[in-house]
Amino acid sequence: MTGNQQQPAGYARAPVIALVLLLAGGALAAPQPITDLPLQADGERQWRLPAGQYRGSFSIDQPMTLTCAPHAVFQGQGQGNALIIRAPNVQIQGCTFLDWGHDLTAMNAAVFIQPGAQGAVVRANRMQGPGFGIWVDGTRDVSLIDNRIQGDPGLRSQDRGNGIHLYAVHGARVIGNQVRETRDGIYIDTSNGNLIEGNLLEDLRYGVHYMFANDNRLLGNITRRTRTGYALMQSRQLTVIGNRSEQDQNYGILMNYITYSTLRDNVVTDVRDGSTGDTMISGAEGKALFIYNSLFNRIEGNHFERSAVGIHLTAGSEDNRITGNVFAGNQRQVKYVATRLQEWSVDGRGNYWSDYLGWDRNGDGLGDVAYEPNDNVDRLLWLYPQVRLLMNSPGIELLRWVQRAFPVMKSPGVMDSHPLMEAPRQPPLRNSAQEDVS
Fold first, then answer.
1. Where are the beta strands (DSSP E) in 50-103?
2. Beta strands 287-292; 83-85: pairing state
3. How many other CB atoms are found less than 10 A from the CB of residue 3?
4. Rg (Cα) of the chain, in Å, rounded?
5. How far is the CA of 349 from the CAs of 197, 199, 301, 353, 364, in angstroms?
6. What is the helix (H) or strand (E) element at residue 122, kind and residue range?
7. 8-35 b/e with 16+ CB inside 10 Å = b?
8. Strand pairing class (228-236; 96-98)
9. What are phi and psi of 395, to 5 degrees?
10. What letters, b where the CB count within 10 A reaches 16 and e where it falls short, cover 136-146?
11. What is the pLDDT along the chain (438 residues), one digit of tens a residue?
12. Are 162 and 140 a contacting pair, CB within 8 Å?
């Protein structure tokens, strides 16, 4: 364009208008101070938010307790975080959060707790939206109590945020929450020394998901209809006691690179076959307990019932203490393909197996004959699944007869030398969600 050519009307103003609109949009997206809302004083540093719709994103930059009146709603309008907590010693309770942002890369959440917000308490709130429910980022001593978090079932599970996400967090207490239809219920990443207790987690990918998280306690939680109830991965010194997995798919409890941990008094029932989806480990037979490359763990007093596979060990999972457990009504009690003998009794006491056919002549409650769940034919079927077409053929039956007649041909495997004749009672569900955590 030459210097004497005329520009179309409005040409010079277009970039200016675009810049103004961009700045206006940025201003609208910036969080508003919570003090801009019509807060009502309710004591020293205590405020009450009256009923109403509060649109946009808000931030708390000073210690306070904020209690919402019934029908006080933070409406995120589909963008960003509904509420950001930046100051220490902030409590939020009784609020409703709707329709915040869905950008998972930007970590959009109903409540985002920043590193400076140590000691935050988020209690008895209701959240429904597509992104993360509560994101806790690099802080300490946070309490997340009795919240109700609902994801967006209209999105694919991998496109939803997690219900509760802890990243680089220490000393958190996550107690009595209910999470449904998010991606994972509770995700604990690179976070040590936290308590997860008494939560109900339904219709998810993973109910509870640990990654690189040590010295954590997982007590008395319930998962239902997830693709994996409890995904314990790349962690050590976990205490997993009194949890339940009901009607989960693929795995009730999955242990992947777990060491020096305790699993006790957990109940896993009715794990269903299903597709692996985005699960990290292949196999979809419906395993109550899957132990993958995990060592030096105590697995005691658990109930694994009515699933396709009671327990599957693979990839060098050795030196685990497995005793006092109940394996009842599983289509296959044990899947183990390795060459090292594993003894599953400790100090003369083993596990209960519903398909054990031995006897107890001296009445001490222990079987007189060892329980050996697998033989060479089982190993053949696992190594070459196509052989299952011949499962009931005369050839397979002949192989089993030869193995029984000539036990010298038998390869090392799992042995319970002191099986229990009666199943221990199911442990009661832990319920500490009502404890005072103020």
1. 52-55, 58-60, 64-68, 72-75, 83-85, 90-93, 96-98
2. unpaired
3. 4
4. 27
5. 30, 33, 12, 13, 11
6. strand 121-123
7. eeeeeeeeeeeeeeeeeeeeeeebeebe
8. unpaired
9. -65, -45
10. bbbbbbbbbbb
11. 344 444 434 434 444 434 433 443 444 458 999 999 999 998 899 999 999 999 999 999 999 999 999 999 999 999 999 999 999 999 999 999 999 999 999 999 999 999 999 999 999 999 999 999 999 999 999 999 999 999 999 999 999 999 999 999 999 999 999 999 999 999 999 999 999 999 999 999 999 999 999 999 999 999 999 999 999 999 999 999 999 999 999 999 999 999 999 999 999 999 988 754 444 455 567 999 999 999 999 999 999 999 999 999 886 778 899 999 999 999 889 988 766 788 999 999 999 999 888 899 999 999 999 998 865 545 554 455 554 445 455 655 555 555 555 554 555 678 999 999 999 988 877 654 433 333
12. no
Per-residue three-class SS string for 9-29: CCCCHHHHHHHHHHHHHHHHH
The alpha carbon dihedral of 111, 226, 333, 312 has a sign of negative
Please choose, from the candidates 44, 76, 82, the residue with its C-alpha nearest in 3D space to the C-alpha of residue 60. 82
**Closest-CA residue to 252 (of 318, 302, 217):** 302
Residue carrying the six token digits 């993958």: 292
Return the H-helix or E-strand segment holding 370: none
Token duo for residue 174 = 């996550």
Instruction: Report d(CA 377, CA 403) in Å as an integer.
Output: 9
Retrieve residue 353's tokens. Answer: 């197996």
β pairing state of 200-202 and 332-336 = unpaired
Q: How many CA atoms lie within 13 A of 210 on its CB side?
A: 32
Classify residue 296 by its DSSP letter. S
For residues 291 and 261, the answer to whether their CB atoms sit within 8 Å is no
